[in-house]
Amino acid sequence: MTNHLIDILNASEHYKEYMISVLVNKLGDIDKTYVKTLMNQLGKLMARKKDYHEVFFNELINLIFRTNVKIQTQYYCISMINGLELSSDSMK
């Protein structure tokens, strides 16, 4: 499913906030292999789509501070934030 969402996100920018939200939410999945594959795919997507960084960053922060989120999920989010190349211009 996530492969299809990433393909759609690559092809079109419609509903990018919603699709990024769904993909970031999947970082809370219990299957570690799935999450690591997803993180790899999201990292590649963020390397190609620099204009998505702000939306992606905000969704990761929202997931970190959501109630009842596992520590492991928070760790994955922080790892993804660490990999983002943010600048003051991209966060305006």
Description:
With 92 residues, this protein is an all-alpha fold. The chain has one domain (2-83). 67% of the residues lie in helices and 0% in strands. The chain has five helices and no strands. The protein has helices at residues 2-11, 16-25, 32-48, 53-64, 71-83. Helix 1 (2-11) runs antiparallel to helix 2 (16-25) and helix 4 (53-64) packs antiparallel against helix 5. The chain is globular and about 35 Å long. The termini are far apart. The model has no long low-confidence stretch (mean pLDDT 85).
Summarize the structure.
The chain has 92 residues and is mainly alpha-helical.
Helix content: 55-70%
Could you name the ranges where pLDDT drops below 50 across 5 or more consecutive residues? Answer: none
SSE order, one letter for each helix or strand: HHHHH
Q: Please give the number of β-strands.
A: 0
What is the count of distinct domains? 1
Helices, by number, come to 5
Strand content: under 5%
| Main pleated-sheet profile | none
The backbone outline, from C-alpha atoms, is globular
Averaged pLDDT: 85
Oligomer class: single chain
Question: How many angstroms does the end-to-end distance come to?
Answer: 32 Å
Radius of gyration, rounded? 12 Å
SSE class: mainly alpha
